[in-house]
Amino acid sequence: MDNIKHLNKWANAHTYYSLDIIRIGLGAFIFYKGMYFMSHSLILADLIEPLKNYVGEIILLHYVVPAHLIGGILIVFGLLTRWAIIAQIPVLIGAVLINLLGEMNALNLMTASIVLLLSLFFLIYGSGKHSADYYLKMEK
Questions:
Q1: 80 conformational bin, left if phi > 0, alpha if psi -120 to 50, beta if neither
Q2: Regions in the chain scoring below 50 on pLDDT
Q3: Distance set, CA 83 to CA 6, 47, 104, 122, 126 (Å)
Q4: Which of 30, 82, 107, 114 has the CB geometry, 3.0–4.6 Å to 72, for a possible disulfide?
Q5: Dist. CA 85–CA 65, nearest whole Å
């Protein structure tokens, strides 16, 4: 718990609007992908075909869309950002693995890798000073 408090204090002291814009963009992109996979569920089923033997296909299909939709909204507003990103990490690692184990698509691999790296950054950095977490903490 002390580590999280220490990280929050450091992040709040080193917060910039550009990082908030990147966090909002990351959340919006994740939410967009959730909407895309919800409306194109057959594409999602085709994407997870290489991982079919490793994890339950139905469980995976029902985890990806809600994790992206709810997590994307939470990341945009900066509410429970670290928890939302923890829910995204398995999906993003799976996205990178799908491109490595299945048919390689360089653009999808690069996109998944960038989103994974940004998510890992915000997992450590947190939501920053311009977020709902900070606002709610200051209301106490």
A1: left
A2: none
A3: 17, 25, 30, 11, 10
A4: 30
A5: 14
Taking the C-alpha atoms of residue 20 and residue 26, their distance in angstroms, rounded to an integer, is: 10
The Cβ of residue 56 has, within 10 Å, a number of other Cβ atoms equal to 11
- The alpha carbon dihedral of 16, 81, 67, 39 has a sign of negative
Residue found under tokens 């917060």: 15
Residue with tokens 């915000």: 122
Q: From residue 68, how far is each of 7, 80, 127 by CA, in Å?
A: 25, 14, 17
Tokens of 124: 């450590």
- Cβ pair 134, 12 in contact under 8 A: yes
Q: Is 54 in a helix, a strand, or coil?
A: coil
Cβ atoms 42, 92 nearer than 8 A: no
30 touches 72 (CB < 8 A): yes
Other C-beta atoms lying within 10 Å of the C-beta of residue 114: 13
Please tell me the distance from the alpha carbon of residue 59 to that of residue 112, in angstroms, as a whole number: 21
Burial (Cβ within 10 Å: 0-12, 13-18, ≥19) of residue 113: middle
